[in-house]
Design brief:
globular, 2 helices, alpha+beta
């Protein structure tokens, strides 16, 4: 079986106010005693598209294609937290 890389396309979160509020939410979740490993604030991001497992050869192709994407800045409103894959087996906590 060939090597696969779990991949997604994401935007860095650069708004310090949003980052501090998400960090505060992380702190509250950790204080519950749940078995959590919060990500460092510099790794918080907005996932635009989950790609799944891709071959290493696809990484450069996707990177080259993404260099040509043009977009304008946009506003995001965060509301609520959720988990996946399930509440009983939470691997990821997300902000909606």
């Amino acid at each position: 079986m060939s090597e696969q890389i779990r991949s997604f396309i994401a935007f860095d979160m650069q708004n310090e106010q949003v980052l501090s509020r998400l960090a505060a939410a992380q702190k509250l979740l950790v204080e519950t005693g749940a078995d959590l490993r919060p990500v460092a604030p510099q790794n918080i991001h907005i996932t635009a598209r989950f790609l799944g497992d891709i071959s290493p050869g696809m990484v450069d192709q996707i990177y080259d294609a993404m260099k040509n994407v043009k977009f304008t800045p946009f506003t995001v409103k965060l509301c609520g937290l959720g988990v996946f894959p399930s509440l009983n087996y939470s691997r990821v906590v997300w902000a909606g």
